[in-house]
Amino acid sequence: MNPLAKMSAAQASGIRFVLMDIDDTLTTNGKLPAPAYTALWNLHDAGLKVIPVTGRPAGWCDLIARQWPVDGVIGENGALAFWEEPGSGGMARPALRQEFNPAALRNDHPALTRIKERAFAETPGIRPAKDQFARMFDIALDFAEEEPVLPLETAEQVRAIARAEGAQAKISSIHVNIWMGIYDKLSMSERFLKKRFGWAGDLCQVMFAGDSPNDEPMFARFPLACGVANVNRYCPYMKTFPAFAASKEGGEGFAEIAETILRKRGAN
Ligand SMILES: [Mg+2]
Domains in the chain, ordered, with CATH? Predict the structure, then answer.
């Protein structure tokens, strides 16, 4: 990983889409700090397409798509994309659009029930995430959003159970997300950029910011991917790393990434 200063003005100027994870990338200790939210507005006002890509639930994505300065949001690790389109006529209200990944299966699948039962029996302390009620496609098991914070090894054990039962599983900084169907943050992001914005596949037009193993497919794909500084905590658990890393953690790190990109674009 290179320091952000190594990103060239030409690289920053070629970016059209700014994608970012939410937990521990936009947030710090669970809150969305003012510099990170301001950074979203600054990117939006600079004409960049701003798109959070998160493991958080459908119910949260409804709020994000409607209320944040974003051009869409991808949720449940790629199961869905929500965005607003302008209403027709001068005073018409925007319309929320929803697309569900055709590969995504609803989370009442019997395999997911079996995985939950095994996880609760075999990894003491693991519990359902409190945002589970707002989810449509995945189950989220909490190991670090609330106390007791469990070691990453426990999350790894849960992931192994899920995989043995035929499910997909990714570890974020707070949850293990488990789903049926072959998709991830990356496949849905590319699908959304193509369908919504006519993106032709130029990988250098996309900057993704993230922090943890569930962001790895994005780090691997996009040559201008950036990590916030807390990505360093997950090095033993990751195979692919972002090209650049901020010096600050969480939301302050994201603000640093946004400021660097906007400054270098101005300098070009
Ligand atoms: Mg995260």
Answer: 2-103+183-267 (3.40.50.1000), 110-179 (3.90.1070.10)
